[in-house]
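From the pipeline queue, job 12 of 40. The input is one protein chain; the requested action is below.

Action: predict structure.
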Amino acid sequence: MKTAIVILNWNGQKLLEQFLPSIVNFSSQEATIYVADNASTDSSIRYVEKFFPSIKIIRNAINGGYAKGYNDALQTIDADLYCLLNSDVEVTENWLKPIITIFKEDDKTAIIQPKILDFKDKTKFEYAGAAGGFIDLYGYPYCRGRVFNDLETDTGQFNDVKEIFWASGACLFVSAKVFHQLHGFDEDYFAHQEEIDFCWRVQNRGYKVKYVGTSTVFHVGGATLEENNPQKTFLNFRNSLLNIVKNVPNKHVFSIIFLRLILDGLASLKFMAALKPLHAYSILRAHFSFYKNLIKFLRKRKELVKKPNYNLHTSIVWQYFALGRKKFEDLK
């Protein structure tokens, strides 16, 4: 299976210096490595050309974010399997083999995510993906190993292979055939949760999204937008609302949106109480942007292939804040 590891870069020379060695050491025999550059203004590409001449460079014309950056780059790569890898990820020995094996064994598997641990504390799961993602009735994402900001210690409890709802864009393996069949990521998302939308559409087509816990990577997280950046709050809240309008396949979508607006209002009050007014304002901005894009996404909704039912029944907000359930295994 012809595999391409594609690292999206924007002014990330320090990250490339830190993390490219592990990728080259543990991947170059099984995959071709690319750096797709989003119109960087630093010297990161010159650095790669000088110290890693075997790595192929793709130069995108503009910084179109995660979605457009990968859409543009992957048009030029001939491979059966793409690994979309953040520039702040350290890989481990033999990380590719178990994932490629699953793809070979099941032609309905379109997307796979490995176990993602925290680079800063390698005993803990990392926020962006952990041991595979799920989504609740109101569009809030959560993971095995991570519910809101509560991160579990890795004790081997998720060393399995399991179907999941969404795979993290920090390290996402995807069939090239399926990626192009679905026309890649939705570029209106720019960044954050575009992988959830993509995984949703993949499943609508009858393909599977899986987690493979026998492959491990370590992710820094927040290297592009830190967790306390209000722009990250804006993108996450807006894009999760867009996911609901675009993908929830039943007649109750607008009642779900109405309840979600109430929950987001409570989140805004929580930010104000924590003396984070910029984050509260980001939620307000997210809603105005959502209304601005509503007609466009209703049109997209009509164009999508839908499955009749999803197991979107729980409220992670209720279980976490009201019932105090902080671990995935405790969720009902």
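Job complete. The longest strand covers residues 208-219.
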